[in-house]
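Backbone-to-sequence.
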């Protein structure tokens, strides 16, 4: 396969290549495991082909394949730049567990929209209450979904998937870290009315099917979590985080 001439590649296209997460030493980079198999057997990439490898710390590296093995792809590092998709605000999504596989969709879309962390939460109205073994498998799947979504959207860091936590524990812990917003179907402030433009960390709490109990909303407010609304319509639990993240990213200048 002919080696591609980097200098002849248009400047704006230099970074539009298959994207992966991996480590490098500034000169060499390596992709192993399933991604290596995907590169060699599915994408059919070979020596001379280009890829973008992100270090998961908002740095992108343009790399050229120099060796293809069954489980390892070796690259030369050609260029580097800061990842442009880094938001100026860290948003943690506290999502009360929905039924079925809705959380898969939520994790994917929250990643695309720039969430920094996604935490599954158990609130009083959660119907889904997986045991320890089951939630462990679910978290592994969500981590994989977040990684794939990060590759697709050009993200520079894969969102952390937190451990399953109780609603009150999540509220108590986050209220000490940053500004919290609880989206409550019984009313609250509009997001454009909140002083969030200069805030560096925001935690958003989204209910499962049926929303939150009034007791939970009161507990959150007592702990400094602001009740907010997404309008007059009652959104589904998988729609609400997409709407909330979109609005917040827009208000903070990230969309």
């Amino acid at each position: 396969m002919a080696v591609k001439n980097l200098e002849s590649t248009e400047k704006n296209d230099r970074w539009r290549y298959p994207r992966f997460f991996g480590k490098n030493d500034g000169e060499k980079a390596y992709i192993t495991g399933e991604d290596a198999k995907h590169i060699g057997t599915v994408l059919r990439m070979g020596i001379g082909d280009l890829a973008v490898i992100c270090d998961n710390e908002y740095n992108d590296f343009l790399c050229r394949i120099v060796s293809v093995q069954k489980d390892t792809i070796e690259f030369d590092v050609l260029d580097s730049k800061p990842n442009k998709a880094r938001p100026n605000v860290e948003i943690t999504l506290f999502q009360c567990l929905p039924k079925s596989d809705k959380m898969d969709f939520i994790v994917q879309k929250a990643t695309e929209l720039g969430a920094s962390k996604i935490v599954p939460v158990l609130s009083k109205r959660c119907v889904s209450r997986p045991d320890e073994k089951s939630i462990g498998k679910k978290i592994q799947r969500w981590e994989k979904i977040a990684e794939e979504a990060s590759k697709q959207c050009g993200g520079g860091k894969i969102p952390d998937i937190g451990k399953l936590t109780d609603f009150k524990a999540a509220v108590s812990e986050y209220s000490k870290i940053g500004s919290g917003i609880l989206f409550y179907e019984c009313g609250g402030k509009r997001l454009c009315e909140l002083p969030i433009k200069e805030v560096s960390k925001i935690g958003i709490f989204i209910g499962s099917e049926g929303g939150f109990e009034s007791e939970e909303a009161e507990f959150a407010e007592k702990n400094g979590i602001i009740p907010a609304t997404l309008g007059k319509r009652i959104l589904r639990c998988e729609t609400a985080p997409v709407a909330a993240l979109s609005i917040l990213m827009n208000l903070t200048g990230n969309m």
